[in-house]
Design brief:
Single alpha-helices involved in coiled-coils or other helix-helix interfaces; 97 residues; 42% helix; mainly alpha; GA_module; elongated; Extracell_matrix-bd_GA; Phase-variable hemagglutinin
Amino acid sequence: IAPAVIAISCGDQTPAPAPAPEPTPGNPNTDNPQNPNPGNPGGGTVDPVEAAKTETKTAIDASAELSDSVKEALKRQVEATTTETAARDLKTKAEAL
């Protein structure tokens, strides 16, 4: 009878892989976790042009005298504006209608 060879394995001796890093809060797929909204110029700041556009659209929606088609046309003009002054001017005009 041949002698029995018993091999005792202590398991795989390779180290466990490092845990995956936690995703950074903020905007997914970006390298800047400090600015959760790429439309804002900085974390926590509000773009004055976007704020004026939002105010103008709210004023347009609140106007009971304007038809839906006129409201949509005004909103398209608001979206096309590039300055705070132009957006506020459209708000004034919409409120005057």
